[in-house]
From TrEMBL:
Tagged with keyword Signal: yes
GO biological-process terms attached to the record: ecdysis, chitin-based cuticle; neuropeptide signaling pathway
Keywords linked to the UniProt accession: Signal
Protein name from the UniProt record: Eclosion hormone
The keyword Cell membrane appears for this protein: no
Pfam families hit by this protein: Eclosion
Annotated transmembrane regions: none
GO molecular function (one): ecdysis-triggering hormone activity
InterPro entries listed in its UniProt record: Eclosion
Residues making up the signal peptide according to the UniProt record: 1-22
């Protein structure tokens, strides 16, 4: 019986680690996309804010540089003066 309890514990640990790695991979992809948008858009894009949002949200919303709706919060509004 103790062997099966150890096996269940090991399986749960592996499941938690797997989920954790998947989440960190999402954050990594999100931050990489922020960097790509910063390279493409330069001063018109808040790269730091984008990366901080990736970390805060755990990579739940990955920016796409060609999708204005996904990067709208990080765009710098040009002065009209």
């Amino acid at each position: 019986m103790p062997l099966s309890a150890k096996m269940v514990s090991l399986m749960l640990l592996l499941l938690v680690l797997s989920a954790s790695l998947a989440a960190s991979n999402q954050v990594h992809i999100c931050v990489e996309n922020c960097a790509q948008c910063k390279r493409m858009l330069g001063d018109y894009f808040h790269g730091q804010l984008c990366a901080e949002t990736c970390v805060e949200l755990g990579g739940a919303s990955i920016p796409d540089c060609q999708d204005v709706d996904s990067i709208r919060p990080f765009l710098v509004k040009a002065d009209l003066v």
